[in-house]
Design brief:
The structure is a single chain. This protein is α+β, with helices and mostly antiparallel strands. About 25% of the residues lie in helices and about 30% in strands. A six-stranded antiparallel barrel has the order 1-2-3-6-5-4. It has a six-stranded antiparallel β-barrel with strand order 8-9-10-13-12-11. Strands 15, 16, 17, 18, 19 and 20 form a six-stranded antiparallel sheet that branches. Helix 4 (about 85-90) packs across helix 5 (about 90-100). The longest helix is centred in the first third of the chain and has 39 residues, at about 1-40. Mean pLDDT is about 80; it is low at about 75-85 and about 380-385.
Length: about 500
């Protein structure tokens, strides 16, 4: 019995030893496997590439001579010719003290930005908002040399500008331009620029998204990246790991980390020759305002999907009106291109040659129709651009629509004409001004507005960054508010 017990203990000991050895073996194997996996992961080293890329990147310093508006001019902007009424109320002495003219004083405003050289003669691509209003432009290359530069051409709608080094007689190193259309989401990219005036700074990240619309203009098609982009980076290059420029760093979202936007380089390549030859860009013009088809609108128009661009306004004597396009038409195809998203149409129209006859397919009251349109030249003033109704709203942090019978019923309005606020961004300028959903805009800068087209015409007269005065109808009351547009 004792011998049997000893045998059982010995067997148990052997089993425990074997289990321990097996556990050790598995753990060692797992560690070895982890080590092999870790050693197989390789992280990119951009150091050699960056040494080459920084040579074509430049810092841009601009000076603009600013003439402040007179106090009375600003007063008149908001209150028109009613200054005599205010004089009667306040008295001449107090009126002149608080609202009277002040001496004109000019001052120089300095700004910083970035750019990149695109040929050996010293042509440089950058942003319009960096150099568009500059009286003096200076460029510093990576080797510390300082040059004067002049503006060759600029396009506000895409925020692209072309400048040229003036006092340099050497051949400059320049960047190779890539294909932004071929970019893949998740692909590595490198941003180089002059953030906060610190000089050449390199950051890396990935392509987070493509085709982003951020409300900066009718041709939004941004590359989103988490490569750090800061003030001063504007106009700098976004490279792929082949060392090719795939974007122009342009915009950020304030108070957000890891969200930056770059203009696709393909958009710049399409207009460089025009900027170089004429200083501006000529585009095709259809002559319509369009808006996104929401789920609610799709139901109202008895649509099975939200594809296409809904025409909310047709300009008189425009290619669209001559071809017979009407308000309420839904454009589904333009010149052979399917229009899936509203924002696709302005870019397609703009790229269409002047005078070309194109086939436009629309849905009109549920029926398919084909119309032939002869594309005209877009006028230089912004009010004639083929833009989305939402562009104006995003500029001020709110969504706007022309009042329709459906909206009139939904908001219990007593009119089917006018312009209504359908949504307000809680973090935008409209919310700061206490604009509310359901407000009807009666006047802008003391001019009556009945639709998006009227609003566009009034805003075209205002300075880019000026506040605007709105007269709103809220239920049975009217009130004035001032609102300042979003900055890029």
């Amino acid at each position: 019995m004792k011998a049997l017990k000893q045998k059982k203990i010995s067997a148990l000991f052997i089993i425990l030893v074997a289990a321990s050895l097996l556990s050790f073996s598995l753990e060692a194997g797992a560690q070895d496997s982890t080590a092999k996996v870790s050693s197989s992961i390789s992280y990119p080293d951009f150091s050699a590439l960056v040494k080459e890329l920084t040579h074509s990147t430049v810092n841009i310093n601009t000076t603009q001579l600013v003439k402040p508006k007179e106090r009375m001019e600003r007063f008149k902007q908001y209150f028109g010719d009613r200054n005599e009424q205010f004089k009667d109320f306040f008295g001449d002495e107090y009126f002149e003290r608080f609202f009277g003219d002040v001496p004109k004083r000019e001052y120089k405003q300095k700004s910083l930005g970035s750019g990149f050289i695109i040929d050996k003669s010293g042509l440089i691509l950058t942003n319009h908002h960096v150099v568009g209003k500059a009286d003096e432009i200076r460029v510093t290359t990576s080797d510390g040399k300082d040059y004067t530069a002049k503006l060759i051409g600029s396009d506000k709608k895409t925020d692209i500008a072309l400048i040229k080094i003036e006092n340099g007689d050497e051949d400059f190193p320049y960047a190779a331009m890539g294909n932004s259309e071929a970019l893949e989401i998740g692909e590595w990219v490198i941003a180089i620029g002059n953030p906060f005036g610190l000089g050449a700074t390199v950051t890396a990240g990935i392509v987070s998204a493509k085709g982003r619309t951020i409300g900066s203009g009718p041709y939004d098609d941004f590359i989103q990246t988490d490569a750090s982009i800061n003030p001063g980076n504007s106009g700098g290059p976004l490279f792929n790991i082949k060392g090719e420029v795939v974007g122009i760093n342009t915009a950020i979202i304030q108070n957000a980390n890891g969200i930056g936007f770059a203009i696709p380089i393909d958009m710049a390549k399409a207009i460089i020759s025009q900027l170089k030859d004429t200083g501006h860009v000529t585009r095709g013009w259809l002559g319509v305002y369009i808006q996104k088809i929401t789920d609610d609108l799709a139901k109202s128009f008895e649509l099975t999907e939200t594809k296409g661009a809904l025409i909310s306004e047709v300009f008189a004597d425009s290619p669209a009106s001559k071809a017979g396009l009407k308000r309420g038409d839904i454009i589904t195809h333009f010149d052979g291109h399917e229009v899936n998203e509203m924002n696709e149409l302005p870019k397609i129209v703009a790229a269409t040659p002047i005078g070309k006859e194109v086939m436009v397919k629309v849905l009109r009251k549920g029926k398919k129709q084909e119309l032939t349109v002869v594309i005209a030249k877009m006028k230089n003033d912004d009010k004639k651009a083929d833009v989305t109704a939402e562009d104006l709203g995003k500029q001020y942090g709110m969504s706007l629509q022309n009042i329709t019978p459906k909206l009139s019923k939904h908001f219990a309005l007593d009119s089917e004409d006018g312009l209504i606020v359908t949504d307000v961004d809680p973090a935008g300028p409209a919310a700061d001004a206490n604009v509310q959903r359901g407000d009807i805009i009666l006047e802008v800068n003391q001019e009556e507005v009945k639709n998006i087209a009227d609003l566009k015409k009034v805003l075209a007269k205002a300075e880019e960054d000026d506040s605007v005065l709105l007269l709103l109808k809220r239920r049975n009351n009217t009130l004035y508010v001032t609102i300042k547009p979003n900055k890029k």
